[in-house]
Design goal:
Blueprint (H helix, E strand, L loop, with lengths): L1 E2 L23 E7 L2 E8 L4 E5 L8 H12 L3 E5 L16 H15 L4 E6 L1 H12 L4 E7 L8 H4 L1 H5 L6 H11 L16 H12 L14 E6 L12 H6 L3 E6 L11 H12 L4
Amino acid sequence: MTESPDPRPRPEANSQRRPDVGSVSAERVTTPVGDSSIVTLVDGLGPAIVVLPSYGRDGGLDYDDFAVRAAEQGWRVLRPQPRGVLGSVGPMEGVTFRDLADDVAGVIGALADGPTVLVGHAFGNLLSRMVATEHSDLIKAVAIVASQSREVPERIAQAPFIVGDPTRPTTERLAVLQEAFFAPGHDARVWLDGWYPQTLAMQRAAVEGVPLKQYWRCGSVPLLEVIPDHDAFKPKKYWGEMRTDFGDRVSTTVVAGAGHALFPEQPEAAAEAVLSWARNFR
């Protein structure tokens, strides 16, 4: 297990963001997939690396910094947007988790030149596992970023559905964001926006409709686990879970000074953790 140095103090969660990034500069490609039409943000040229965002959020601003860094290292970064987000459309009710995996697989088949590396952040790690299970021929390796442990306090488990509900008081949402998603001293207000309640509800229903054991093993590909050291969804006593479950398939990196949100908190360290490992699968 490797650990990155902690660059704190950090007065704002995104104070280390590069000034030259922005999802507005990414190419937007629309791919028909069954009954859906999936918009993908595309940056760079080279072998594909696919980024799947967290619960109820888009794959834009949170990952812009990562996309630019990856593109500079010779990757083609694909960020397929969930249904209901940034122009992606498709049925929003009666959707299975396999349907969502098929959306991602359709994008990979259309835009990637062969099998890819997946990067799944928070909820995106669950979707990455399903994609690798159902479409193993498309996946080289998976980075599991800020995954939840088996046991999480109920107030933490419910956090996405509180902060992702814009009808709740801002003070309540901000308090939950700070406790569940951000390390101490980081400004959680950067995540008050960027939530898509209809997409969140659709994703939640899809996850709850299939047993975790059906896709938890993430196929048989190599895995990277990235653990933010202040992740309320994975207390330190659970940091060895994936190694216990999957043995030598797993490499583990701890990013210091970050919570579950990670990418807006420690953009440089998050990118380095993933990209230094991903080089093995170019």
